[in-house]
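Still learning. Any example?
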Amino acid sequence: MHNRLKQIIYLLGWLFLILSGLLLVPLMYSVILGETDSVTHAFIYSALLSLSIALICLGFRPNENVQLKLSGGMILCAFAWIGISIVGGLPFIFGIGASFVDAFFESVSGFTTTGITVFTGLDSMSLPILLWRGLIQWVGGLGILTFFLFVTFQNEGDIWQLFAAESHKINTSRPVPNVFRTIKIFWGVYAIFSLTELIVLLLLGMPVFDAVIHSLTTLSTGGFSNHDASIGHYAAEGFQNAALIEYAITFFMALGGMNFLMHYYWLTRQYKTVITDDETRGYIRIIVLFTFLVVLSIYVGQTSSSGFESIFRRTIFQVVSLITSTGFGTVDIGSAFFPALAKQLFIILMIIGGCVGSTAGGVKIVRTLVIAKLYRRELKRVYLPRGAVVPILLNGTPIENNEVLKIAGLFYIWIMLILVGSGITALFSDLDAFAAISGMASAVGNMGPFYFSVSKMGSLSPVIKYTYIFGMLAGRLEMLPMFVIFQRLAWRSLNR
C-alpha cells in the first residue's frame, strides 16, 4: 500500500479516536441522569466501535513522512465526513431504535449543520440523545477536520491541505500566516460567542438544558432544537421573555452567518476592515431588504392581524434563520402567515446562504456578488472597446479569472444538483414541484426548513433520503470533495 493512502487511513484513525472521546460526553450525562440502559449502552457501544476503528486505522502509520496533496486532502475530507456521520448515527439506532437510513440522515444533518430532522416527539426524547444532536452540530459548525486540527497538531503542510479541502473560502485569506493559529482564532471566537449566548439565554429565563442545546446549535447555524415547535415553543408555552429570546437568537444566528475573520477583526478593533468589507455589507443589505419585502408582502396579502412588532420579529427571525442556514423557526414557513411572495423569497435565501468563512451554508454571498459583477462586466463589454480591461473587483482588489470561472462552475453544479435531487424527490414521492424543490434546496444549502411536514420527511423513500444525504455532504464540503472521490485520476495521484 502506498504511503499516501496509508497516511489518509492513519489520519482517519485520529478522527475516529476524537469521535470516541466526544461520545463520552452524552455517555457521562446519561450516567448522571440515570437514563435507561438502552440509551447508556447506545453511547458505550458507539464509543467502543469508534475506538476500535481508530485503533485499526492508526496501525496504518506511513513508513515515512509524506506531504498530503490537495487531492488526498479532499479524499480524506469526504471519507471523514461519511465515516464520522455513520458512526455518529449509531446512538440513534441503539438508543431510540431508528433505522440505519434515518440515523445516518440525522447524523449527516447534524454534522453538516443542515438541521433537517426525521425525528418527531423531541419534547419527550431522551436528554442525552438530544445533547448528542446538539453537540454534533456544534462540532460540525466550523468543520470536523478543523476541530481535529484544533485538538491535534499535525504537519503544517497537511494542516493547510485539510483546511483548504473543507473550508468555505474564496481565497486563502487568514488573520495570521500560520494556519494552526488561524484555526485556534476561529475556534476561540466560536467558543466565546457560544458561551456568551448561553449566558444571555439563561439570563432571559430559558431552562438550563434548553439554553445549552440552543447555544450549541445557533452559532453553528445548525438549527436542531429540543422542541418540535423549535423556538416557537417559548411563545406557545407563554414564557415571559419569549420575544426577547427570539431577538437574542436572531442576533447570534446573524453572528454565525458572518465571516469569522470579520469577528476577529472587530474584536481586535480593526473596525474599518469590517465596515468596508463588500460581503459583510451585502449580507446586512440582504437581511434588511428581504425583511422589508416579506413584511410588505404580509401587509399587502393581509395574512396576519398581528401588530407590527410581532410581524417584524417573526419576519426578521425567519429571514436571518434562512440566510444563515440555521433553520430555527417561530412560524412554519409553509403556513398561511407567509404569503406566496415570502415563500419564493425564502427559496432565494436558501440558495444564497451566508458569508464565506462562516458556519452558514448556501452558495455564499461573496460568490453571488462575483456572479452579479460578472454579468455587469459582460454587459459593459457590449459597448466598450474590444480591448478594454474590465476587472471584477472585490474589496477593491481584482479577482483572477480562474477564480471567477471556479465560482461560476460551482454555482452551476449547485443548481444542477438541486434540480436533479428535486426530480428524484418528485419521482419517488407525491410531493408537488414546489415542495420537492424546497426539500433538495434545503439539503444542498444546509438549511433545514422545507415546504412539507417533518413527519412527511420521515416517511419519504430511502432513495430520497440518500439523495438528500449526498446533497447535504456536497453542499457542506463545497461540492469538490464529494465528486473527487469518483475521479480515478485523483486516486492515481496518491501513488505519485
